[in-house]
């Protein structure tokens, strides 16, 4: 199966939101196929610098095409943010972009095992060099854990029934392929959501679990705030409500004065200042963008700026 090109979502809006200073240091936490990275490089001057991350070795190989001394691509999860920056002697950065989730090639290459549209080994890892595949996880996980994952990450009503069906199926051999899992879910889920394959929720939930997508996000956000220089921007594009909820809450909490017990003898001026200020309202793709790239329809972008200490 040949790779579908990745169409960058909110390209102009995200790069504008970074408010790029030509000599600044920027981080693209999710290189993908480099749509955002290339646009950032186009706005940076000769002194500027862009450090990008991707945990997918195929994305990293694609990024080797960019021969630019201002650019470096790190093969690591973005939760390694602080460590990777420290290794490079970078203390402060002027902007960080996270365009979360998976790229189109990851979804559309059958052998990644992320989609029920193709029959392939049930892998689902973004980083194929480490960690358990979805099949390996399903082979060992207790029914209670499978149920929780399907319920929390897929908001699947039939989470328990599917988990039980998986446990029964694996006694007769592993649930090893996307086709086997899709067929099992299709048999187990009794209702049909319009326009949606019955296995959609299960596949989303397992992908989030295998790649620890929500943990990664929760780990990186405080590291970004600690590294942003005053005036530096954090720009995050989310693709489902679980991610967006984490981003929204994090930005909201970091942009509020700390909650202290009432009647504490502290003057308002002595209170620590919030670390972030929200910038504008959430941004959604335009109707034209959604028409041209239906995968952008669930995207939402939030922007915050680091305050002065
Ligand atoms: C939506 S795509 C990014 C597309 C990119 N902005 C572009 O324009 O080409 C998300 C990419 O981030 C990577 N990714 C997702 N979560 C990651 C994480 N926790 N650490 C590092 N890379 C991650 C995926 O492997 C994927 O290549």
Description:
The structure is a single chain. The protein is α/β, with parallel strands linked by helices and about 300 residues long. It has 2 domains: about 10-100 and about 215-305, Vaccinia Virus protein VP39 (Rossmann fold, 3-Layer(aba) Sandwich), CATH 3.40.50; about 115-210, Putative methyltransferase TM0872, insert domain (DNA polymerase, domain 1). The chain is built from 13 helices and 7 strands. It has helices at about 10-15, 35-45, 55-65, 80-85, 105-110, 135-140, 145-155, 160-170, 180-190, 200-210, 215-225, 240-255, 285-290, and strands spanning about 25-30, 50-55, 70-75, 95-100, 230-240, 275-280, 300-305. Strands 3-2-1-4-5-7-6 form a 7-stranded mixed β-sheet, with helices on both faces. Helix 1 (about 10-15) crosses helix 2 (about 35-45) and helix 7 (about 145-155) crosses helix 8. The longest helix has 15 residues, at about 215-225. The protein is globular. It starts with 10 loop residues before the first helix and ends with a strand. The mean pLDDT is about 95. S-adenosylmethionine binds next to helix 2 and strand 2.
